[in-house]
C-alpha cells in the first residue's frame, strides 16, 4: 500500500473541518501543505531556468509530497519534479537599477522555493524580497530543483547562480542571504567542498536560522511525524513505518533515511539529546530517537540517519569560511507558530536551537570576520518576512 493512499482514510475520517485544522497546523509549523500555488511570477521581473553541466548525471528521488506546488515555478521548470541539473534564477524588479550595486542573492530553505521570500505559502505576507527592494537593493533568488535536495547538489546550483548574477550585473561579488537549510549549500560552496571551487565572489554571508550545529527536530518530536503523515505535507519523517488502522504501513519514501526522498535532510542532523532532554511524554519517544519498534511506529534512529547523511555537520565544521568574507548570524527565540507550539525543549525558533545557529567558531577558524550574532523574538517562519529581521539584514549589508 502506498503511503499516499494510506493517509487518505485519515483525512476522510476527519471531515473538512478536521482536514483544515491539520493543514493549518502543518502550514503554521513550516511543514508545507500540498496545495498548488500560482501567480508568484508577479513578484519577479523575469525567471531563468539554468542547467549545471556538472550535475548532468545526478538524480534525486521525489515522492508526491515533496514535488513542487507553485504552478509558475512548475511552468518555469517544465516539471514538478525537475532534474538535478536544473534550477531557477529569479530577477526581482530593480535588479539592474536600484541604488545598492552589490547584488543580494536570497537562498531558500527546506520545503521552500524563491516565493518563500515574497509571499510564504501564499499567506499574504510581505517578504524580505519586497522589503529589500524598497530599501534600494538589487535582489535575486534561487529556486533549487529539489525542495529537500542534497546539499552538495544545491551548492553546485548556487555556485552557478552566483556566476550568473555576476555576469548579469557586472559586479565581482554578491551578498548571500540564506535561510535555514539554504545556509548548508552556501557553506559547502564557500568552504571549498563543492565540485566547483570557491571563486572569491562573496562579500557578505548572512544566515537566518541556519543550523550550523545541526538539528534533531523530527527525532525529538515524534508527534510531528503523525502531523506530517496525516496532512500529506512536505515535511520529513523519522519513522519509516507507522500504525494506520491497526496495520503497520511502510512510509520509507517520506522518511529521512538514504532510501527516502529527502536526501538533504539527513545531512543536517546532529544529536542534541545530551544538551536538551527528550520528552518521555511523546509517543514512542525512545524508539523514535534511538531506533527500534514502538507501539505506533518504527524508526532506524538518529545515529543511522546521521551516518546516511555522511556526518555532514561534522565534516562542515572542520572547514572555515575564506578569510575575506564577513558573516552574520540571526537566531529566533519564539517557538510558537500562529499559536501552534513548535519545539520547546530548548531555546530556539521552534525548529532550530539558538545554540546551533550560534555555533560559529568553525566558520571563523580561517579568519572570516563575524559582524554580528543576534537573537530576535521571531519563529523560524517569521525569519522570512519580519520587518525586524529585514532591518537587521539591512544593517549587515551596509558598508
Describe the structure.
- The chain has 399 residues and is α/β, with parallel strands linked by helices.
- The chain has 2 domains: 3-31 and 216-312, no CATH class; 40-214 and 316-397, Rossmann fold, CATH 3.40.50.
- The chain is built from 12 helices and 14 strands.
- It has helices at residues 3-28, 71-77, 128-134, 151-169, 182-190, 217-220, 222-231, 285-290, 302-308, 312-316, 354-357, 387-397; strands at residues 46-51, 86-91, 100-107, 137-143, 174-179, 202-208, 239-244, 247-250, 292-293, 297-299, 326-332, 336-337, 340-341, 369-376.
- The chain has an 8-stranded mixed β-sheet with strand order 1-2-4-3-5-6-11-14, with helices on both faces.
- A hairpin with a 3-residue loop joins strand 9 and strand 10.
- The chain is globular, with a radius of gyration of 20 Å.
- The model is unreliable at 1-15 (pLDDT under 50).
Amino acid at each position: 500500500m502506498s503511503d499516499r493512499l494510506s493517509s487518505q482514510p485519515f483525512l476522510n475520517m476527519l471531515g473538512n473541518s478536521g482536514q483544515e485544522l491539520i493543514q493549518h497546523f502543518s502550514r503554521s509549523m513550516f511543514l508545507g501543505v500540498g496545495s498548488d500555488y500560482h501567480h508568484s511570477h508577479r513578484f519577479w521581473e523575469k525567471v531563468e531556468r539554468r542547467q549545471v553541466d556538472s550535475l548532468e548525471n545526478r538524480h534525486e528521488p521525489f515522492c508526491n509530497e515533496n514535488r513542487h506546488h507553485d504552478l509558475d515555478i512548475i511552468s518555469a521548470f517544465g516539471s514538478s519534479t525537475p532534474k538535478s541539473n536544473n534550477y531557477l534564477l529569479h530577477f526581482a524588479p530593480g535588479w539592474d537599477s536600484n541604488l545598492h550595486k552589490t547584488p543580494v542573492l536570497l537562498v531558500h530553505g527546506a520545503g521552500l522555493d524563491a516565493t518563500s521570500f515574497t509571499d510564504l505559502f501564499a499567506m499574504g505576507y510581505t517578504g524580505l524580497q519586497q522589503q529589500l527592494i524598497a530599501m534600494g537593493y538589487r535582489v535575486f533568488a534561487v529556486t533549487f530543483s529539489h525542495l529537500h535536495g542534497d546539499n552538495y547538489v544545491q551548492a553546485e546550483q548556487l555556485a552557478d547562480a552566483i556566476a550568473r548574477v555576476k555576469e548579469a550585473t557586472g559586479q565581482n561579488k554578491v551578498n548571500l542571504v540564506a535561510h535555514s537549510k539554504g545556509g548548508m549549500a552556501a557553506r559547502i560552496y564557500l568552504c571549498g567542498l563543492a565540485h566547483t571551487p570557491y571563486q572569491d565572489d562573496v562579500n557578505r554571508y548572512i544566515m537566518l536560522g541556519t543550523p550550523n550545529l545541526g538539528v534533531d527536530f523530527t527525532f525529538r518530536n515524534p508527534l510531528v511525524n503523525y502531523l506530517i503523515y496525516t496532512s500529506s505535507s512536505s515535511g520529513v519523517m523519522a519513522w519509516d513505518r507507522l500504525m494506520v488502522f491497526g496495520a503497520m504501513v511502510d512510509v520509507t519514501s517520506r522518511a529521512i533515511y538514504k532510501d527516502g526522498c529527502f536526501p538533504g535532510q539527513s545531512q543536517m542532523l546532529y544529536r542534541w539529546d545530551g544538551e536538551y532532554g527528550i520528552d518521555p511524554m511523546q509517543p514512542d519517544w525512545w524508539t523514535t530517537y534511538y531506533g527500534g519498534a514502538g507501539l505506533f511506529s518504527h524508526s532506524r534512529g538518529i545515529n543511522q540517519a546521521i551516518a546516511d547523511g555522511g556526518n555532514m555537520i561534522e565534516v562542515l565544521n572542520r572547514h572555515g569560511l575564506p578569510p575575506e568574507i564577513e558573516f552574520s548570524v540571526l537566531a529566533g527565540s519564539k517557538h510558537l507558530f500562529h499559536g501552534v507550539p513548535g519545539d520547546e525543549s530548548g531555546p530556539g525558533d521552534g525548529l532550530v536551537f539558538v545554540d546551533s545557529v550560534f555555533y560559529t567558531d568553525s566558520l571563523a577558524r580561517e579568519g572570516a570576520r563575524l559582524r554580528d550574532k543576534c537573537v530576535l523574538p521571531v519563529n523560524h517562519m517569521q525569519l522570512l518576512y519580519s520587518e525586524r529581521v529585514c532591518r537587521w539584514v539591512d544593517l549587515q549589508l551596509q558598508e
